[in-house]
Structure formats: structure tokens, C-alpha cells
Amino acid sequence: LVVIAAGIITGLAALMPLDVILEKLGEGFLNTRNLPLILLLPLAVIGLLERHGLKERAQAWIARIKSATAG
């Protein structure tokens, strides 16, 4: 909502007609509608992995490496 309001206000400040502003917002939305999927899907996968013990498994795996040091 904030992005849409900012786009409309910026367009009006640039003296663009309202129909052109809405057309540009629509084009931008259609061109980037898959972007949230690309950004949110890995976050969901990482969240599920952490829920099922990713951190503990990583700590155990690193602890088995004798030459690993902190830092």
C-alpha cells in the first residue's frame, strides 16, 4: 500500500496523467510478480529446516571435525 501511494504521489508530482501512472504501476507489478516467490520460498525452506533441527545437526557435524576452531 505504501509503495502504491508513493508511486501515485511521485507520478502526480512529475505531472503524469493518472491513467499513465496506473499503467506504469500495473506493468511493474506484472513484471515482478514472481519476485516474492523467489525471495520467500527459500525463507520458508530455511524456517522448516531450522524447525526440524538444522542448527543442532550443523553444530554436531562441526563438532566432529577435529581441526575446526572458533573464529
Average pLDDT confidence is 85
Number of strands: 0
Rg estimate, integer Å? 23 Å
Largest sheet: none
Helical residue percent band = over 70%
Structural class: mainly alpha
In terms of per-residue confidence, which ranges show pLDDT below 50 for 5 or more consecutive residues?
none
Query: Kindly, what is the distance between the CA atoms of the first and last residues, rounded to a whole number of angstroms?
Result: 44 Å
Supply the number of helical segments.
Answer: 4
**Overall 3D form:** rod-shaped
List the helices and strands in order. Answer: HHHH
Number of domains: 2
% residues in beta strands: under 5%
Keywords: Membrane, Transmembrane, Transmembrane helix
InterPro entries: DUF969
Transmembrane segments: 33-49
Protein name: DUF969 family protein
Describe what you observe in this structure.
Keywords: Membrane, Transmembrane, Transmembrane helix. InterPro entries: DUF969. 0% of the residues are buried. The mean pLDDT is 85. This protein folds into two domains: 2-31; 36-64. 76% of the residues lie in helices and 0% in strands. The chain is an all-alpha fold.
Annotation keywords:
single chain; 71 residues; mainly alpha; 4 helices; rod-shaped
Can I get a quick summary?
With 71 residues, the chain is mainly α. It contains four helices and no strands.
Mind sketching the topology for me?
Layout: H1 2-13, H2 18-31, H3 35-51, H4 54-64
Helix pairs in contact: 1-2
